[in-house]
Amino acid sequence: MVAFGMLGRYFGRRFLTAVAIAFLTCVALIAVVDFFELTRRLGDRPDSSALQVGYLVMLRLPSFTEQMLPFATLIGAMSAFLALSRRLEFVVARASGISAWQFIGSAVAIALMIGVLATTVYNPVSASLKETADRIEAELLASRVLGAGATQEKAPGNIWVRQRSDNGQAIINAQTSSRKGLSLSGVRIFTFDAKGDFAERIEAKTAELETGAWRLTDVEVFSPTASPKKLGVYRISTSLTADQVRGNFTSADALSFWELPGAIELVRAAGVSAARYEIQYQLLLARPLLLATMVVIAAAVSLRVFRLGGVGKMVTIGVLSGFLLYVAGQLSEQLGQGGFLNPIVAGWLPIVCAAMIGCSVLLHQEDG
């Protein structure tokens, strides 16, 4: 087969080199942006340093670049195919009776292998490093908030959950979470008595889940009927279990590909919706097909002979196609999390549709 012969290996090397350059370029850009962002957020801490910020950037980088891999594949494939077309190598291949399907076969095979490695190897590594980075960042941010004073207004976090206990209800707000949601930082809790009346507001540096209770540290309690008081340790009873906490406080991308099946079963057993974990699992399973689809889209817009013109327009269409696929994937994911789509459909539908459209366009170009 051409895809695995000498010509196929040559095209495959060109494709792999172009994807590697595009991916490393994305890595460099993301690292610079994230470094300045973390410097802005942590720069006012007297104990922070450029070395510490750089360490956090390196821990966070794999998680961010993992999301950029499909775009790096698309850009790398387009640049490789355009370079081969500009040098008339594709023209010579066509003249020798080789179709476009044959000489992009090696690129598709490499994209599938990259996708498998990204799902089974790169994703677990990035999830582990991101968990470490989140824990360090949570400690730094919690220390900064505490040092600024409990009376200073804090920006609202993006984690909210309601819990019930024997004493009434409580609404928990946290800025960040770590240890799969078992540790919270920048915590604010609003408690209500058995009648539903507001009881007190509690602010704490950290919260750790224990059996039947949250253990709060560096606490300040505000009550309508008493003066504010500061406590080193404070406990609030809870009926939440560790499995339920994972379902409420842990983001799906914080779990690796190998951890997701077990997490899905635990969350289901706890009576919490596991849709976001199921969709994330399906997206990781579909990643090899996604990267192969990017190669097909790149071939559909890049295999145009330069002397015919319109190359810039075709490249723009390719970039827009990748962006639209991303938007469609995000929309499908939101519909799946809302219960409007089955998780399997939400994870696979945009990719399968894009693959079919790309193959149809390439078939029309090659066979009319």
Helix/strand layout:
Layout: H1 6-42, H2 50-86, H3 89-95, H4 100-103, H5 105-148, E1 159-165, E2 168-178, E3 183-192, E4 198-210, E5 213-223, E6 226-237, H6 242-249, H7 260-269, H8 275-302, H9 311-337, H10 343-367
Antiparallel strand pairs: 1-2, 2-3, 3-4, 4-5, 5-6
Provide tags for this entry:
lipopolysaccharide transport protein A fold; 368 residues; alpha+beta; 10 helices
3D architecture notes:
The structure is a single chain. The chain is of the alpha+beta class and 368 residues long. It folds into 2 domains: 2-144 and 271-367, no CATH class; 159-240, lipopolysaccharide transport protein A fold (Sandwich), CATH 2.60.450. Helices cover 62% and strands 17% of the residues. It contains 10 helices and 6 strands. It has a 6-stranded antiparallel β-sheet with strand order 1-2-3-4-5-6. Helix 1 (6-42) runs antiparallel to helix 2 (50-86), helix 5 packs across helix 8 (275-302) and helix 9 (311-337) runs antiparallel to helix 10 (343-367). The chain starts with 5 loop residues before the first helix and ends with a helix. The model is unreliable at 145-157 (pLDDT under 50).
